[in-house]
Amino acid sequence: MTAELVRGQNHPLPETRLEIRVSVGKPIVAGVTLSDDQGKVRGTEWVAHPGSPTLPGLEVPKQAAADHRLAVDLGAVPEAVHRVNVLLALPVGVGGPVSFGSLAAPFVAVTGLDGSEVASYTITDLDAESAVVALELYRRQDAWKVRAVGQGYAGGLADMLSDQGLPQARELAGTINEAVAQGLARSVAAPPPRPSDEARVRTTGQTAAPGPGAQGPDSTAAAQPAQPPQPTPATHQPGDASPPSGGPVNYTHPGRQTTAPPPPPPTAAPAEPGRPAQPVAGDATGWSLEERLYNQVWGMFEDLARTTAAYRSAVDFAESRMDQELDKVLSDPRSRIGNTGDVAREAARTKHGLLVDRARAALDRDLGQLAAESEVVEPALPMAYAGWDSPVWHAYRTPMEIPMALRLGDLHLPERPDLRIPMLVRLPLERGLWIDSGRSSGTDSLADTDQLRRLAMDSAVAHAARLLAVYPAGEFTVHVIDAAGSAVGALSPLVTAGVLDGPPAAGAAGVSAVLAKLTQRVDLVQMAIRAGAADALPPDLDTAEQLLIVNDFPHGFDDRAVTQLRYLADEGPAVGVHLMLVADREDAAEYGPLLDPLWRALLRLTPVADDHLADPWVGHAWTYEPPMTPPGSRVLQQVLNQVAQARRTGGR
User: Fold this and answer.
1) Does residue 108 have a pLDDT over 80?
2) Is 224 exposed, middle or buried (0-12, 13-18, 19+ CB in 10 A)?
3) What mean pLDDT value characterizes the chain?
4) Which residues are 577's β-sheet partners?
5) Three-class DSSP category at 244
6) Residue 20 backbone phi and psi in degrees, to 5
7) Who contacts 309 (Cβ-Cβ below 8 Å, separation ≥6)?
8) Band of the pLDDT at 25, cuts 50, 70, 90?
9) CA 377 from chain center: how many Å?
10) CA-CA distance, 565 to 514, in Å (whole number)?
């Protein structure tokens, strides 16, 4: 069972090989220092940071990102080490937040290699601090323990490292900040080619060859990687991969399957010499067209992330080089004679412009290839992957089996806003959804609170309708809690079609009844699974996947109901009970950090476009677009009516 620590509390560690997971919401730098029995860091060689990410038994991320994973093998650290300190710091000089007080409380968890949490700690009461010692792993009588520290430093990395006795603290802090600011820490190397990867190469002058398919997500984000922000891209090991002879960009993707599925059908015509290959829908590998398209979509996501990271890194390099050359000119007394200084400054700016133009030209070429592929892939997507404006919805028929994934919206980056990548998540859902009805960075300043709440509930209904539509008849059940009855209009498509398990629950009694019913279902199924007696479940138990939509949380919830909701969010997905929370986090501020685990357990989505999804692969902030139906379209109601008809007739 996970121990939720408070500042100063400790907990034994059952094993020495661990992962430390960090979640903040905005890009931060993560590092580790080693200290002896006096608590002193003996030198820079005892510090793991983005510029020097590995030490014996330790590996930290190479980039600033909103979510991190640190690998720890306590059995491999030197004998002289008595403490392993986990450090978090805000990047300097990159235009981000300057203190932790402006961010959500950082969350740190110690997990086993299987992902099971050992201990977690939410660092509260931070204000002007820009660096913090989050955790301390320490030896005690030949065993290791973890202690929640939460010691912040307003002076940043330099003060924190000085406090740990490092003589070169300020020099090392400058090195770390410079690496992050110049993009060295977040530069992305192309993954090394693998034997099974000879395939998915998109280059100019070459036809697309088969390659590996996509597989599941990295649990740290938005994106889980194959599922971004939840999504986050798959973890890639850095390496050097030479571009193929047909062009400068190698889009080979790392293999994600233990066995090679069949290659895509040879439908692509050979490209003419000097021209890029024509994109083809389904050119990734997979056992079915659905799987090939799924793999292709996430291949496009990775391509866009990689080429954008390369462009940003090139621009950072150009700016850093220009700054160095300008500093050199200013520090040279000879530049004050005549117009020597002006000539040198103009030459530095010209060189900067050439480097940026060259990087932009390469980016535009790669984005053009991806845009052409998107134009081919989007019309070929099956119903579960297609947008509400796709013609496939007008030919809707109840499916016979559950699809492998579901579209929750679109993702794009500011370098090419019109290039949208479908955001696909695997089914069944591995975590619940939180539709944020509060203000965010993408919210129009003129939009009022009531309008945002209506948009959030409309978005929740669209998500619920899509889930109902892609499951076979009778295999997905939806419950609604609307304690104040404020979502009557938004819920009318679901109520009118008759696809809900019952009328939306209102008032404290309604909230209590629905939560008790679903909590009991989770308990029963868990007990049956543990006892290996799934056939002993009560005959009246609804074995379909369950979705609970909660509007305007925490209105109408007492402490017991809040506890039950947290239980459903944590334990429900594993036994087919999923949560969709429509809420403004500020409305629940009175609960303080008590509800932080609830928000973290859910995938946050917004009813308006917002750049809140970050992937831990390259640290991009992806803009999320919700999947709303076209204005004036009745497609959602028509689909729900057919879902209701199929439920009444048993799928016939």
Assistant:
1) yes
2) buried
3) 82
4) 546
5) coil
6) -115, 120
7) 186, 187, 188, 618, 620
8) confident
9) 23
10) 11
Q: Which strand (E) or helix (H) includes residue 368?
A: helix 340-377
Task: Determine contact, residues 581/603, Cβ cutoff 8 Å.
Answer: no
Q: Compute how many other C-beta atoms are within 10 angstroms of the C-beta atom of residue 335.
A: 17
How far apart are the C-alpha atoms of 218 and 113, rounded to whole Å?
13
pLDDT at 227 over 90: no
How much is the pTM? Answer: 0.64
List the structure tokens of 264: 């895509």
Bridge partners (DSSP) of residue 183 are none
User: How would you classify residue 436: left for phi > 0, otherwise alpha for psi between -120 and 50, otherwise beta?
Assistant: beta
Q: How far is CA 145 from the centre of its chain?
A: 30
Q: Quick one: tokens of 168? A: 């070169």
What number of other Cβ atoms are within 10 A of residue 624's Cβ?
26
Distance (Å, whole) CA 649 – CA 334? 89
Angle in degrees, 0-180, between the axes of helices 169-181 and 156-163, rounded to the nearest 10 = 140
Helix-then-strand count for the chain, H and E: 10, 21
Q: How far apart are CA 126 and CA 99, in angstroms?
A: 8
Distance of CA 319 to the CA centre of its chain: 29
DSSP 8-state code for residue 418: T
Cβ–Cβ under 8 Å, residues 153 and 169: no
Distances (CA, A) of 444 to 63, 436, 604, 605: 31, 15, 19, 16
Chain-centroid distance of CA 3 in Å reads 25
CA torsion 247-248-249-253 (nearest 10°) is: 70
Residue with tokens 């002006």: 342
Q: How far apart are CA 315 and CA 547, in angstroms?
A: 46
CA-CA distance, 564 to 542, in Å (whole number)? 19
Structure tokens at 446: 């003129």
Coil, helix or strand at residue 338: coil
Query: Is residue 210 reached through a cis peptide bond, with omega within 30 degrees of 0 on the bond before it?
Result: no
Quick check: 424 pLDDT over 60? yes
What is the pLDDT averaged over residues 216-241?
36
Q: What is the dihedral of CA 4, 600, 488, 631, to 10 degrees?
A: 180
Residue 229, helix vs strand vs coil = strand
482 has a pLDDT exceeding 90: yes
Kindly indicate the confidence band of residue 85, based on its pLDDT and cuts at 50, 70 and 90. very high
SS3 at position 346: helix
Q: Check residue 329 and give its pLDDT.
A: 76
Q: Among positive and negative, which fits the CA dihedral 374, 375, 381, 384?
A: positive
Please give the Cα distance from 571 to 601 (Å, whole number): 10
SS3 label, residue 330: helix
Cβ-in-10-Å burial (0-12, 13-18, 19+) of 297 comes to buried
Cα distance between residue 459 and residue 440, in whole Å: 16
Report residue 458: phi and psi, to 5°. -60, -40
Residue 636 has pLDDT above 90, yes or no: yes
